[in-house]
Each structure stands twice: as C-alpha cells, then as structure tokens.
Amino acid sequence: MSERRYPDLWLDPADDPRQQASIDDGSELGVLTDYLRVYRMTLELKCADLTAEQLARRAVPPSSMSLLGLIRHLADVERTWFRQRMAGEDAPRRFRRADDRDADWNDAAADDAMVDEAWRAWSEEVAYAQAYVERAPNLEVVGHWEDQSISLRELLVHMIEEYARHLGHADLLRECIDGRTGQ
C-alpha cells in the first residue's frame, strides 16, 4: 500500500470521485444538480467499507441516529419530495410507520439484508429524482402537498440543505465508528 499524499483527508483529491465528471455546465440547474450529486456521493463515501453492525451502530447515545438509519431516512426524503410532492404519485414512505414516525432510524438493525434493502431503496429514489429533474422543462415546475407548493428550484436547494445537514451527522457517526474523518 502506497503512502497517502494527504493522510488527513478522506481521499486524496486525485482519487476523489466527487471531483470527476461534473455535470455543472454553468447554468443554475447545472450548479444545483452538481451540488446535490456531490452530496449524494459523499453519503456513499461516508458509509463505505463498513459492516452491517457498524452501519447500524448508534454512535452518539441517546440518539437513534446511525448511518443505516440515515440511508433509510434519505431514501424516504427523496421519495417524499420527488414522487409524492413533485410528481403527485401515491407513493407511501418505505420506512416510516404510522405508529413510529422515526422508524427509518429506530428500526435500523445490524442485518445485511436490511443494509441491502436500504441502499437499493436509496438508489432507486435517487434515480427517480434524477430522471424527474431531467424531464422537467424548467426550474419553475411546481409540486404540491396539502395547501403548500414548492418549485423545483426550491426543492433542489432544500435537498442540498437536507444532505448537507445530515452529512454533518454522518461525519460524527463515522468518526465514532472507526475514527475516520474527512472532507
């Protein structure tokens, strides 16, 4: 194994896939979707190389937060905003239950099948969201829920905020698991 050029960083910049294949073409849509792409990839990086037990570990007691819960939560966030609110689909959340609004976090368990299901759900919802954005005629497309509405522009900014906030949690959770920190 070669010595890392930047041992204090998660990845050496030349090896960081988030810096490759930017979709930012300078347009507002390009900037927003590229930020969201990078944050989604960061979630994958923060969870990489961990066992089901490590992903399910609640590293900051008494919180129910775990990296696995975070994957499940973000799958439902993607689903709720893009399928339900923007596309108007009848798409119930995958992990929340009527008797437990935090089941995405609370039910996360050290189980390989659960980890696979969470990643599959998250990947499907991200793919759906990306396809929705690609099909949208512009950033002014409006989604609705209850008596509120949101433009695609506002939603993309919200999703960037949602991932940024939770990736801060992921940093702390990962550091508690194996001491790994990074960009």
Secondary-structure blueprint of this entry?
Elements: H1 28-47, H2 52-56, H3 67-86, H4 103-106, H5 112-135, E1 142-145, E2 148-151, H6 152-178
Antiparallel strand pairs: 1-2
Helix pairs in contact: 1-6, 3-5, 3-6
Pfam families: MST
Protein name: DinB family protein
Region (Disordered): 1-23
CATH class call: Mainly Alpha
DSSP summary: helix tally: 6
Characterize the overall form: globular
Count of the domains: 1
Strand content: under 5%
| Beta strand count | 2
Mean pLDDT over all positions: 89
Structural class: mainly alpha
Poorly predicted ranges (pLDDT <50, ≥5 residues)? Answer: none
CATH superfamily caption: dinb family like domain
In spatial order, strands of the major sheet run: 1-2
Predict the CATH topology: Four Helix Bundle (Hemerythrin (Met), subunit A)
Protein name: DinB family protein
InterPro entries: DinB/YfiT-like, MST-like
Organism: Leekyejoonella antrihumi
